[in-house]
Amino acid sequence: MSYHIYSSKLLENAVNEFSKLPGIGKKTALRLVLFLLRQNKDEVQSFGDSIIKLHNEIKYCRSCNNISDTDICKICANPSRDHSTICIVENIRDVLSIENTQQYHGIYHVLGCIISPIDGFGPGDLMLKTLETKIKNEEVKEIILALPTTMEGDTTNFYLYRKFKDSGVKISTLARGVSIGDDLEYADEITLGRSIVNRTLFESSFSS
Fold first, then answer.
1. Where along the chain do its domains lie?
2. Which CATH architecture has domain 9-57?
3. pTM of the full structure
4. According to the model, what pLDDT value does residue 7 have?
5. Which bin fits 114, alpha (ψ -120 to 50), beta or left (φ > 0)?
6. Are the C-beta atoms of residues 68 and 60 closer than 8 Å to each other?
7. Considering the chain, what percentage of its residues have pLDDT values greater than 90?
8. Which residues pair with 142 in a beta bridge?
9. CATH number assigned to the domain with residue range 72-207, chosen from the 4 options 3.30.750.24, 3.40.1360.10, 2.60.40.640, 3.20.20.70
10. Average model confidence (pLDDT) for the chain?
11. Residue 184's pLDDT band (boundaries 50, 70, 90)?
12. Which residues of 134-145 are buried (b: 16+ CB within 10 A; e: fewer)?
């Protein structure tokens, strides 16, 4: 087992905090901390302030649950977007991935999680309240199920299909250009873009 003996408790504490980040081990954390130590004080102050300000001031869109600087995110507030089409995604990273394709011009709804009993998430944990309100009270023509192509993603897709299939709204899903088992954030932009453009009716994905 590898371990480090630090000459400074301050250094050790900083390394421990960085190593809590996903994908960051102790060696990488030490490299990052030493890099920051080599920067001037103003740059480090700016770095720290940006993280604190992010945590204290970030908002979640009251309409779609996307991160935002205001109560309603820029996508939902944009009148040029197609508000009759809603793309349902698991998390905020998926919004960024789809936006990067520049192939989608509707709005989004972020669930916050997918149904995964092993992780402790059930149907009641999905953030659906504002989506249900939109489908009931607004002119929503289509919802696109853009969830991971995993067992958990497919389970959530089927749950949402059953929930909204009698609402009169078209329910579609991404074309299978995205490989089975992939998260959207790892799909290349061209493949993901084609999967959105060539989306199919969800019912045909399991009735064929």
1. 9-57, 72-207
2. Orthogonal Bundle (1.10)
3. 0.78
4. 83
5. beta
6. yes
7. 75
8. 85, 170
9. 3.40.1360.10
10. 88
11. low
12. bbeeeebebbbb
